[in-house]
Design goal:
The chain is mainly α. It has one domain: Orthogonal Bundle (Arc Repressor Mutant, subunit A). The chain contains 3 helices and 2 strands. Strands 1-2 form a two-stranded antiparallel ribbon. The longest helix has 13 residues.
């Protein structure tokens, strides 16, 4: 099993767990989930292809921000 940081979350846009974690640098807690998701989406373009990774992206955001 590859390490979590390199785990591909969005195959369409080739966005890894680490890419999403880096995109969260301006967020220290889960304020508004939709706004946080949109910020990550604007930086990484994840979940803008087929949309199949939407739930995985939310899970990564939650895991990173909530520890």
């Amino acid at each position: 099993m590859e390490n979590k940081e390199n785990y591909m979350i969005c195959n369409c846009k080739q966005v890894s767990y680490a890419d999403i974690a880096k995109a969260l640098h301006n967020h220290t807690k889960m304020e508004d989930a939709i706004r946080v998701f949109e910020d990550v989406q604007n930086v990484t373009h994840c979940s803008t292809g087929c949309g199949g990774c939407y739930q995985k992206v939310l899970e990564v955001i939650s895991e990173v921000l909530m520890g």
